[in-house]
Inverse folding.
């Protein structure tokens, strides 16, 4: 068996009929002046206080960087963004309950320090260049590598936050179908969940800031996976994409080792990939929709709880209940790139795939509402109402007064 086949076999090991959702939500911890709380003397102390609720802990370079229990993990992103990863669930209300429990634990801890958690796609006040990385070698090496591959790696690592939803696939055919659908809808998801009104401490012109940032990090490992719409695309083609590209770093008994632009095929020539090495390789690529032993849909910004749960409900409707919106045949990677540009410039007034995006959104939401049960449909409502009014998450939240203090602070 070749290493490419081992990667494909590893991915195939995720085939399941469970049809669950996993949700990850990143947050900024900010001070009263909206500046980002650093890891040293800030995020580190918050984690220590949170640790009374979580029986398992992880350390790096002697510093606490993660907490775990049987419902969620709390981890720290490159510049101290706090992420909750919620265990796979079948029902959105269960995801919401776990998320609320985390917020109920975290918010008082931050409040007593004059801090708070905030859900935005980009940090509201800080400059990315001034943010320190947490003590994790992986992030230091990624930061080094991205300086040579694009213009926005520093911004991505230090100043962005997302909402990611993961879905199951039953077999290879189901996986490819879901990958293609999710990629085609990536520009729409980015528009609907746009929640990044600030860039480097100033009001941001245009829409879909995080999409623009990710598209300028590293073309070899971001965006749409090459060949996704080819007839022969499947687990092996994805495995080839991974194995023939640079992983940036590999993990050894002595820790992370920088491998730069050397592809995995050279690094592991003559050696059999282990399961842990395969898992690491898959984690070092960041396409809009990432494949591991599940499908990770990545374009949404970090959002307030009600919208994040609405987004989870929408993903469930499309990919779990199969309420897929009507999309033309024959679309591909170039169409997705054009759709991103169109929607970032024209927003809800734009047209993609031969139709007004508003019509596509209406069709998608109508199908979702018919497919979901009453409880999940209730969670979809805030996001659906905003999109039907032609408002992004930020625009809708601002109308409700959720971000009044932010606008005043900029």
């Amino acid at each position: 068996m070749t290493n490419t086949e081992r990667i494909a076999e590893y991915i195939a090991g995720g085939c399941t009929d469970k049809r669950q959702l996993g949700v990850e939500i990143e947050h900024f911890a900010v001070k009263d002046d909206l500046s980002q709380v650093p890891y040293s003397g800030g995020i580190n102390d918050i984690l220590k206080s949170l640790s009374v609720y979580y029986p398992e802990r992880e350390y790096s370079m002697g510093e606490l960087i993660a907490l775990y229990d049987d419902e969620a993990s709390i981890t720290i992103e490159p510049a101290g963004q706090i992420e909750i990863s919620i265990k796979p669930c079948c029902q959105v209300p269960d995801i919401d309950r776990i998320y609320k429990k985390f917020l109920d634990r975290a918010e008082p801890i931050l409040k007593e320090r004059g801090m708070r958690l905030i859900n935005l796609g980009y940090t509201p006040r800080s400059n990315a260049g001034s943010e320190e990385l947490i003590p994790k070698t992986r992030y230091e090496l990624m930061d080094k590598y991205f300086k040579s591959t694009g213009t926005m790696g520093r911004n991505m690592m230090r100043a962005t936050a997302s909402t990611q939803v993961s879905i199951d696939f039953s077999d290879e055919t189901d996986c490819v179908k879901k990958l293609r659908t999710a990629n085609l809808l990536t520009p729409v998801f980015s528009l609907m969940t746009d929640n990044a009104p600030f860039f480097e401490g100033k009001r941001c012109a245009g829409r879909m800031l995080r999409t623009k940032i990710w598209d300028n990090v590293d073309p070899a490992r971001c965006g749409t996976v090459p060949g996704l719409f080819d007839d022969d695309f499947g687990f092996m083609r994805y495995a080839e994409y991974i194995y023939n590209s640079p992983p940036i770093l590999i993990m050894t008994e002595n820790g992370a080792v920088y491998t730069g632009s050397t592809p995995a095929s050279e690094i592991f020539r003559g050696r059999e990939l282990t399961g842990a090495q395969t898992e690491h390789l898959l984690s070092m690529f960041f396409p809009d929709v990432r494949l591991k032993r599940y499908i990770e849909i990545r374009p949404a910004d970090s959002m307030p709880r009600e919208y994040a749960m609405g987004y989870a409900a929408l993903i469930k409707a499309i990919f779990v209940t199969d309420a897929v919106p009507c999309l033309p045949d024959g679309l591909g990677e170039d169409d997705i790139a054009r759709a991103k540009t169109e929607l970032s410039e024209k927003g809800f007034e734009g047209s993609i795939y031969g139709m007004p995006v508003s019509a596509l959104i209406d069709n998608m939401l109508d199908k979702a509402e018919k497919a979901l049960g009453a409880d999940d449909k209730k969670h979809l409502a805030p996001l659906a109402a905003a999109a039907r009014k032609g408002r992004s998450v930020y625009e809708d939240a601002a109308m409700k007064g959720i971000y009044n203090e932010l606008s005043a602070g900029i």
In short: The mean pLDDT is 96. Residues 12-224+286-409 form a domain with the Creatine Kinase; Chain A, domain 2 fold (CATH 3.30.590.20). The radius of gyration is 20 Å. The CA atoms of residues 331 and 353 lie 8 Å apart.
